[in-house]
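Many introductory courses stop at the sequence. We go one step further.
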Amino acid sequence: MIQEIAPAAEVTAPAPPHVLLVCFPSQGNVNPMLRLAKRLAVKGLLVTCCTTSGVSAQLLAATSSSASGVVVSSGVDGVRVGSGRIRFEFLDDHGNEKADLLRYLETSAPAAFAELLERQAEAGRPVACVVGTPFVPWAVDVAAAAGVRAAVLWVQSCAVFSLYYHYAHGLVEFFPSDSERDQDARVQLPGLPPLSAAEVPSYLLPSSPYKMYADVIVSQLRNIDRASWVLVNSFAKLEPDVLAALPGVTPRPPQLIPVGPLIELDEDGGEVRGDLIKAADDCVGWLDAQAPRSVVYASVGSIVVLSAEEAAEMAHGLASTGRPFLWVVRPDTRPLLPEGFVDTVADRGMVVPWSPQESVLAHASTACFLTHCGWNSTLETVAAGVPVVAFPYWGDQCTDAKFLVDEFRMGVRLRAPLRREAVREAVDAAVAGPEADAMLSSAKTWSAVARAAMAPGGSSDRHVQAFVDEITRACGK
């Protein structure tokens, strides 16, 4: 008699650890959040990206149509990226405008986020770690109350972290009263070059009309000891002096773990994107028709608002360079352009509402980047190896410009007030001036170092892997 053998029970693979990233709904916060999400998902984690509902439509529109239905489906665990997945959740901000949005984030969002954590557990995907960005300082508190470990993703430089940390703990006074106007005054912090009032984050100056932003960041630094990790969008060789100096500061700050540059790499996850403004489709094709290292690329990012005078001076300045240019002019700024300007320069200039910036910077025809020096743009141009014309406006951009020009040696300054002659002279200096070859060489060197940090086995890649491994061990996976 043949004994019947029961079929083997199906073995179900254990669910991967679940990490929930939450950020302020701005381009400068969404980009590093999504790029870190991809790094974590590639290594096998389930990652939920969370921000407010006011940008949900833009985020889903930026995601390819083949994936968007999966991303937002509560019954499916998201888009496959490497061996993990990415999905989205949104906190309902009721369509608030900026002032009301800040109030919502301060008063109502923490409770909504706590409910979101509970829903994840009820859905069978409990959160193992919450990762918040500095403009949502309550994320680590909500996580702690729920018994969930937390990390902070610092989306600015290590240098700016040090400046805010010293300010938050009263370790230094930044240009009190009217002395900020004194061009000879300098502040000196461990591991940083001497900085003038024009080179520290402008939110820290007494005259800043945006002190509320500094207050939010300071709130994060005052509860940051509740986070188990502080991940920073930088890399070890870019800011070695400040990374070495911070452990000697009293009170001692948490260790910064460089996981950057958080840029788009040639890997899975390209269908998950964070452009809050739709990029023009024909930028790369237009660049293909230009000569190598001939194009001036100009963009002041997603937030900086040019005045009508500044927009006109920038327009005439770019046109006067005699070089082809690709200029990002957001829809809110386009009405400020001189009448007929776009048609007048159509033979050599392209004006678009938004661009696929990393593709533009990587293109062989791009000669220099006229940039506002936001940290994401700074890292993208460092990784691409493109010289800059630095035109900072506010916040940490002022410090980033200092490092791009004086420390990384890969560009020139364009100082306010903006004048067309200065635009032309700065572009000429960056592309063909006496120091242009040296700036290009420095930029190319930094590009190689940046890409090595993010490559498999590079310093930042190892830090990401160590973070994943620690979460995985804590979950018993």
